[in-house]
Amino acid sequence: MFSVSRGAVREAISVLAERGIVTVKPGIGIFLNNNDQDQLFVLFDSIFHEGKADIFELLELRQGIESYASFYAAQRRTEEDLRRIKAALDQMEHSINRHELAVKEDFAFHSAVIEASHNSMMINTFKLISDTAY
């Protein structure tokens, strides 16, 4: 389904258990120890910055997060969120019309959409990935 080997999944679970994020109960299941986002983001940050993920994998992860975030943004956005998205889009179009690359403007647009999802896990993961990729 996700094209990931069982060995890779076992290794990931082992790392999570070793760091105290999950508890493995053989024959019963795997349980999240608490809802501590900070601990999870420390783990993500160490993976991203220790060179264990390449830029293409980070971009694929970002694309996946953006897809789901746009779905939730469409459902949860506020009028202020819409204003930020529109302003970012206008800035990007303005830069493109001046034949500029619009990298910052593009990032601002994507960030505004992610923020409009109102999902702190997506927002924080996007920030981590973006800090690593750029």
In DSSP terms (H or I, runs of 4 or more residues), the helix count works out at 6
Strand content: 5-15%
Strands side by side in the biggest sheet: 1-2
Structural class call reads mainly alpha
CATH architecture assignment name of the domain at 53-133 = Up-down Bundle
Please estimate the helix content. over 70%
- Sheet with the most strands, sense and barrel status: 2 strands, antiparallel
Shape verdict? elongated
Q: Tell me the total number of β-strands.
A: 2
CATH fold naming of the domain at 53-133 = Four Helix Bundle (Hemerythrin (Met), subunit A)
CATH level-1 class of the domain at 53-133: Mainly Alpha
Radius of gyration, taken over Cα atoms and rounded to an integer in Å: 18 Å
Q: Uncertain runs with pLDDT below 50, 5 residues or more? A: none
Distance between the termini: 30 Å
CATH superfamily of the domain at 53-133: GntR ligand-binding domain-like
Q: What number is the mean pLDDT?
A: 83
Which sequence of SSEs, written as H and E, runs from N to C? HEEHHHHH
What layout of secondary structure does this protein have?
Blueprint: H1 6-18, E1 22-25, E2 29-32, H2 37-49, H3 55-76, H4 79-97, H5 103-116, H6 120-133
Antiparallel strand pairs: 1-2
